[in-house]
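Aim 2 progress. For Alpha-glucoside ABC transporter substrate-binding protein, the working sequence is reproduced below.
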Amino acid sequence: MFAAAATGAALALVLTACGGNDDPEPGATGDGDGGDADCAAYEQYGDLSGKTVTVYTSIVSPEDQPHIDSYKPFEECTGATISYEGSKEFEAQLLVRLEAGSAPDIAYIPQPGLLQTIVQDYPDTIVPASEGTSANVDEFFSPSWKTYGSVDGTFYAAPLGANVKSFVWYSPKQFEANGYDIPETWDDLIALSDKIVADHGADGAKPWCAGIGSGDATGWPATDWLEDMVLRTAGGDVYDKWITNDVKFNDPQIATALEKVGEILRNPDYVNGGLGDVSSIAATTFQDGGLPILAEDGKDPLCYMHRQASFYAANWPAGTNVAEDGDVFAFYFPGLDAGTRPVLGGGEFVAAFSDRPEVAAFQAFLASPEWANAKAVSTPNGGWVSANSGLDPKNLVSPIDQLSATILGDTTQEFRFDASDLMPAAVGAGSFWTQMTAWIAEGKSDADVLDAIQASWP
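Predicted structure tokens for this construct:
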């Protein structure tokens, strides 16, 4: 259980058990640096010389380059060319492209709800997953991941990356210097926030910093806060019914969770360290949201905590030491009591919009251990992990990634997939985002926000 990660000492034991990144062996699993790859595993894809596969995603700089680098073994061994395009407006623009008849060959879809919308509204554009893709998912992923990529019993989209979202980033050095302990319960977290206000508020520092800006997808980080809190205050059964609208957004159980989130995100004493007032959270990109934790030389940090997923490790500046005794690390986002530790997570899914052989081959490759290991090797700063059981933990360079891989592989954990990603796109990638943004930027009331989201349910 994740309880072992609640304290620094116990977390160190978990990380040791996960294994370090000594002596990674990408060899037969794909060399992410594009050097001489072992091509034996790629012979199944055939000779694809002169063929190009286009990829469209929401993954932009600085997280895009490791993806591009991870394709090099496939390109080298098959002769294919992979053309990558990332966009902050992906969710909206993908539908525009489908409507216009200019679909990409491959798209990385971060919301199963969006996949459902595509299948229902643009059924002639998307194709079922290739035979090789399906075989890889059956062999290397737990059955639930195939379910997330299926609509009405047809499997379309294979899991790609995965992440653990129930993390709070902090500076171990600053916590040690100030005598702060890792909180084990929600009350501990609030008490720590109050202590930071008392210790550093006069200097302009705040306990928390946050950013929910993400182009057309602005607001999604705020939905993660609410999802994590619903798991903690209402439990997994209510969470599951909330996803299907059997529990409404304006149900008192969801309102209670939003009120808890507001204790932090709408508290002017707590946020937004180094960035502005509460409303500045909406104008700050999620990539920049945690950066005030890093203190300049000889100065105190402007904030002390930032709730964000494991993949945030990729957004720290080059040279940042992400480790339990480093510049930054993360602790578990605590529940109401120390014994209840649900985990929120998410991931992307690979959908194909062409059944050309080279597209089918590339989709299958992305569901293979060869790609998972090539991607790990190609991500030297960490911030990426997969639920692919063929991923060698030795190829994960970050302790956070190693810990996340262990959590994702722990079937005893109460794990739930990101709720907004499973809801219909009109809600999960629409009103939920926009109303949570209005809650921050405009101070819209809890009740009005929840009523508006519920009214948008198709």
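The domain at 167-341+424-455 is CATH 3.40.190.10 (D-Maltodextrin-Binding Protein; domain 2). This observation will guide construct design in the next reporting period.
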